[in-house]
## 1
Amino acid sequence: MKRIYCNTDEHHEHRYLSQKDAIKLYLMGRKPHLKCDKELVQEVLFDAVVTAPLEAYWTRLALNKNPDKGVEIAFLGTRTGLSRTNLFVVPEQLSNQDFLAPDDKEGVFNADHFPLWYKRAAEQVPGTFIYSIPFSSGGTENKSVVLASTAIQLLDDRKSPIVAALGIQMKLDFFQKKFWTASRQNINCYLIDNNGFILVAQDSSQPYLAFIAAVKWLITELVMSFVIQQIPSSNLFMVVVDNKCDCSSAPPVTMEPFSFFDHCEHNESLKCERLKNQKDRKRPDSCHPYHPEVPLRARENAMECGRGVGLDPQPPVTLLALLCVLLAR
């Protein structure tokens, strides 16, 4: 169900109001006919009070911990729709001008409309950071920044609800310097995310490509021996490729599809006959050959129902058991 702070469509004079302006007028009591969700407005006000100290914290970080201006924006979004952002550089120096959609720049957004960075963080395992390359409004990748975000839970428990998400926007070269320490010439290192996008590579022309688009990279690099390992508490994977190995013995990798089952013999009826002949089955008291919840192909044949070897007493075994009881006395 869609939840909004204030209903600005009911009266004509309210239709020009944004949600932020409508909340202000509702709190000041200047619009008695303006209908707002009291509970949701109170939750937003609570989030605003709790997150207010972040402004001073971010300012202190900008002055003391960001000399190279690698981090450009810090942002926070709460479950009720409150958003806070802090610029570490002047707006003209932002590498990605499309970070916030027009609906998000008001400082509040509808409770059923969350930015993509919030949704992706909320879908991850709690306590992990998700890294991604944002797309501009034109649908193309922004090749100069990386977003990192994580979700915040109400309690230190995986079952606890998510109440907010926060993160940063940083320059891509700043992000790459944090990872790039390999100096060996016989290996190639790549940093990819869980969707197959290459975030870090030695060749600066290769990042930002998805695996689907990087067919040439797959064919030439992954034929060689490689190691892939997930980076803890993130959605990133490190791929290390040995570019000096002799790959002449490896078969060529083609994109031609083939059917695996054409090379395998699969006879379901033969398998069933073997199972019936190898296992003894007891005939049930009554036979129910029809089961509507079972597919037609899997239903038993009424003539085969309960077929098996019966349970008969074995005289030698019975006498041996009685003899053991008598000797024990």
## 2
Amino acid sequence: MPQHACKKFNRKQYWNAELSKAVAERRLALANLRRSLSPVNLDILQQKIRYSQRLIRMAKSLGWSWQEFYTSVDETTSSSEMWKKMRWVKVHRSNSHNYYKDNDSALSLLNSLTSDHACPSQPRFHSVYSTLESEITIHESDNSIKKTDTAPGKDEI
């Protein structure tokens, strides 16, 4: 006997009644737009989409704590699941607020970790082929420049 998809459905931890209402309003706006195509209905739909997306983003960021993240990682966590968690951490950390509220302390920390100026070293190129290291002669450059079927220009190349 096949199982129903409804029985397997698990709500997300961050989902609440406010999100359900916003998504329902978004669906109603989409239905109104499909019934009567007008710029006003399109504007209403876009407004409802923006509002519901903002609510969902806020709920996701507030609904998942670091403590839950740490407790969800153990020796049974698969590598694919761990990579998903690491992607989440990367996004979460990039959206987080500054760690240093005081700009002076942040600058002093930065200055203590890095020097003011660093001279890049000159790159050294070594080749095993000595013929490639030799200078180009005038005879070689004259032979390499095409003399016919060229585009007209001041340099006449």
